[in-house]
Design goal:
With 206 residues, this protein is an alpha+beta fold. The chain contains four helices and eleven strands, in the order H-E-H-E-E-E-H-E-E-H-E-E-E-E-E.
Length: 206
């Protein structure tokens, strides 16, 4: 009887050990998965693009094929200041290029005037959009990031060479090719760009 009882007891203890091992392995697996998910989430937040100020600009190049903004998307070195204003219940996209006169593009369709919200245009209703020489289409906030850090708005202006922008307040200069500052370790606030080619909508967003 004692021998049989010992055998049964050993079997029971073995089963308990197996269950403990299985539980430990499960906890270890779940811990590893949690670590991997955390790392992936951290990597997915691209530090290149700013989320400080909401930005969601939409422009249908198919409806405005000859506009300066549309042409700038396929011409390396051509950049535009872009803002939106309302006049008599209609949205107007105001475009100032680095190589010519400003343009007022009236939004004439129902979608452009009633379904698209132009309230989120970066720090102060102004972005810079254009085609870089080596990195495709890029978009930046028009406000000087250095001045924004001290709670002061200062809209950037074209530099003499028209491939850079300069702050009239602090005199910082920024290269549009990559958004870097020529005098300090700071970059323009950059936004994501979605554009699949001529005739398709352009979207600048966080």
């Amino acid at each position: 009887m004692n021998k049989r009882t010992n055998i049964q007891g050993n079997k029971f203890t073995s089963r308990q050990r197996d269950k403990k091992l299985t539980t430990c392995q499960l906890v270890h697996l779940l811990t590893c998965q949690l670590i991997i998910m955390t790392l992936l989430t951290a990597c997915s937040a691209d530090p290149q693009y700013s989320t400080t100020y909401p930005c969601n600009f939409y422009f249908d190049t198919g409806k405005h094929p000859t506009s300066i903004l549309t042409r700038s998307l396929d011409n390396p070195g051509m950049w535009t200041f872009v803002s939106v204003r309302q006049s008599q219940g209609m949205n107007h996209v105001m475009v100032t290029p680095n190589n010519g006169d400003a343009e007022d593009i009236a939004m004439t369709t129902e979608i452009e005037n009633h379904r698209v919200n132009y309230n989120n245009m970066g720090a102060d209703n102004g972005i810079i959009v254009g085609c870089s020489n080596f990195s495709g289409i890029r978009a930046y906030d028009r406000q000087c990031p250095k001045c924004l850090d001290i709670a002061r708005n200062s809209a950037l202006e074209w530099d003499d060479n028209r491939q850079m922008v300069k702050c009239p307040s602090c005199q910082s200069a920024y290269m549009l090719e990559n958004g870097s500052c020529t005098t300090a370790g700071i970059r323009l606030l950059e936004y994501k760009v979605a554009f699949s080619g001529p005739g398709s909508p352009l979207q600048v967003h966080n």
